[in-house]
User: Which sequence fits this backbone?
């Protein structure tokens, strides 16, 4: 449909106005079957067809048929009002996949003559036919229903008035009426306009206002439990010490690239253990974008993690002595050789412990694990690269290759000792969700939070970017509850009109299919195959978002990611922060839950109701059973003690009887 300008004149339903029809079809898009179009544009196209030499059914017409256009427009306005939409709304499910049911519901609700109902049925078919000719294959769903919106839609549909016309005659805001039709709840100031609407529609007094529920107060989490780690983290962020990648000198860059090639090459130059390989995955499945961890179109998550650790270690060596560092000049510190120096490694781990308030945590263990793999006898990269000793300052340099290997062996003992004792918890995953786990139904407040987001979406301007963002956010929390994936997996979800995406539809609903590159476990263990159902209660939300709201957020027509950023194209890198913001804003009593926190919440809630369901939780989280048993063993102990104490209590009761 090319850009054209039509003048559409009807009776009371549509006022004379110019209607500008925009080209919104994006050629080459993976969703090119979707035509982003409003009912206003569709009606303009219908009007143009009646004014053309060929009528709507392809027959010859000698002159325009304005009365037919007015009749079709009248039916369309009434049909849209019944389904909570207006002429400015985007075409949705009511005219596509659910057309038959939507039309039947609308016609059954009308209290008109049989002949009038027959005419309106014909008009709807004409409207549907024009949309089919424009090749718009959208899917969406009807708006959220409330008792008020249901009653209001019936009344407006039966009035024969377009919502804008009705609003004008009742002296109320057209946008307010559109939001009420979509499911928004009027506030106290909206009651008087609602009464004027009752009068205009010929309804009894309070027939609409009595359906308005008291507005729920906004969630106030100012007194939510403070998470100590997050407060400490804010202070630590202000005292950054890691060396930035842009500050790497030529020597360090060269050494890093050699290590990276050794870890990722199929046939490395030096000996490497079977488990010493760093896995490469497609860039599209990762938020990592550093050139130092990429190889062509692939990226290495393990290298990304280690690079962060390495930057901190080298930053510590450069950090002034008075600030707890080693105070080395930058050029002397920039070499991988320091990873083989026992004193430097030990000093860094002591420094990390001090910053963690004395806790030797898993962050220590992860660093030690990486370093240990580089120092192993026979397959350790640093142990085989004796010439790297020359990169160290003379005062720290081993005399010969034998001394270098001996130093590597000493450092390996250091990291082994640290790794063994680094079992503390710096960031307790249960702290942000503890207030939920104390409830009989820990997941209920999350569902209530999703409902609040949906309510805000209904109150937003119809078709606006803000409404699309809120719909996306509600879907995001729903997916985290239904399928508690890791953040990277959730970020990498895709859709495709061919059904080849991560999220695809079947006749039974949506399913979620992940490749090994989208999973932490890769090709090993639990990560071999992941193809599971998405909860049925999420289906309608997915339908609605994909076809009505995702296109509003899409900046790039070729973007296949399911959950899109509102600010940039490609993978949504800020998703984790958005989840924290949403949970803090919409879940009462919450200080913010991370995507990983959802995994702990879902798993713990399940195990509380199913004490022996560790295998099911392993499947739910796509994790190894041993990992789940270790992480949630405390729940089994609690259940065992509870059962034991119940038996003791029963014995006390028996003693009293005796």
Assistant:
């Amino acid at each position: 449909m090319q850009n054209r300008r039509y003048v559409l004149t009807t009776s009371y339903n549509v006022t004379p106005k110019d209607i500008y029809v925009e080209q919104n079809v994006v050629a080459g898009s993976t969703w090119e079957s979707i035509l982003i179009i409003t009912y206003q544009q569709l009606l303009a196209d219908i009007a143009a067809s009646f004014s053309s030499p060929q009528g709507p059914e392809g027959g010859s017409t000698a002159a325009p048929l304005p009365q037919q256009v007015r009749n079709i427009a009248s039916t369309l306005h009434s049909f849209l009002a019944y389904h909570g939409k207006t002429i400015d709304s985007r075409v949705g499910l009511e005219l596509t996949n659910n057309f038959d049911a939507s039309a039947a519901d609308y016609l059954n609700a009308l209290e008109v003559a049989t002949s009038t109902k027959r005419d309106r049925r014909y008009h709807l078919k004409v409207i549907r036919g024009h949309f089919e000719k424009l090749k718009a294959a959208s899917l969406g769903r009807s708006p959220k229903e409330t008792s008020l919106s249901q009653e209001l839609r019936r009344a407006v549909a039966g009035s024969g008035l377009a919502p804008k016309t009705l609003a004008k005659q009742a002296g109320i805001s057209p946008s307010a009426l559109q939001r009420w039709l979509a499911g928004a709840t009027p506030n106290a100031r909206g009651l008087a306009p609602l009464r004027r609407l009752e009068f205009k529609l010929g309804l009894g007094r309070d027939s609409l206002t009595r359906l308005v529920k008291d507005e729920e107060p906004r969630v106030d989490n100012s007194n939510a439990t403070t998470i100590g780690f997050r407060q400490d983290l804010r202070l630590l962020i202000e005292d950054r010490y890691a060396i930035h990648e842009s500050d790497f000198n030529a020597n360090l860059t060269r050494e890093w690239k050699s290590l990276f090639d050794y870890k990722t090459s199929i046939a490395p130059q030096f000996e490497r253990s079977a488990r010493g390989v760093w896995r490469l995955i497609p860039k599209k499945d990762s938020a990592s974008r550093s050139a130092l961890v990429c190889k062509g179109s692939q990226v290495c998550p393990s290298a990304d993690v280690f690079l962060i650790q390495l930057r901190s270690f080298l930053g510590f060596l450069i950090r002034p002595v008075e600030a707890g560092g080693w105070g080395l000049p930058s050029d002397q510190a920039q070499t991988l050789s320091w990873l083989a120096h026992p004193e430097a490694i030990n000093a860094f781990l002591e420094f990390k412990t001090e910053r963690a308030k004395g806790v030797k945590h898993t962050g220590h263990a992860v660093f030690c694990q990486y370093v240990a793999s580089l120092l192993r006898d026979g397959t350790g990269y640093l142990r085989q690269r004796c010439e790297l000793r020359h990169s160290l300052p003379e005062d720290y340099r081993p005399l010969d290759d034998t001394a270098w290997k001996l130093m590597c062996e000493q450092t390996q003992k250091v990291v082994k000792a640290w790794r063994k004792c680094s079992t503390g918890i710096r960031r307790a995953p249960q702290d942000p969700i503890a207030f939920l786990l104390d409830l009989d139904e820990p997941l209920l407040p999350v569902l209530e939070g999703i409902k609040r987001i949906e309510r805000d979406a209904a109150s937003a301007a119809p078709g606006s970017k803000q409404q699309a963002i809120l719909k996306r956010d509600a879907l995001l929390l729903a997916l985290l509850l239904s399928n508690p994936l890791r953040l990277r997996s959730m970020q990498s979800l895709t859709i495709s009109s061919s059904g080849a995406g991560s999220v695809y539809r079947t006749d039974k609903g949506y399913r979620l299919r992940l490749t090994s590159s989208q999973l932490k476990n890769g090709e090993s263990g639990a990560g071999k195959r992941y193809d599971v159902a998405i909860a049925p209660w999420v289906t309608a939300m997915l339908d609605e978002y994909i076809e009505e709201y995702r296109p509003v957020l899409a900046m790039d027509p070729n973007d296949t990611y399911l959950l899109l950023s509102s600010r940039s194209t490609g993978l949504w890198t800020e998703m984790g922060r958005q989840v924290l913001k949403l949970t803090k804003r919409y879940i009462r009593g919450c200080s913010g839950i991370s995507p990983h926190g959802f995994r702990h919440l879902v798993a713990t809630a399940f195990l509380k109701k199913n004490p022996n369901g560790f295998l099911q939780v392993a499947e739910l989280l796509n994790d190894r059973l041993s990992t789940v048993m270790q992480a949630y063993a405390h729940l089994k102990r609690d259940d065992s003690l509870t059962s034991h104490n119940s038996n003791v209590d029963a014995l006390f009761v028996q003693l009293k009887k005796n």
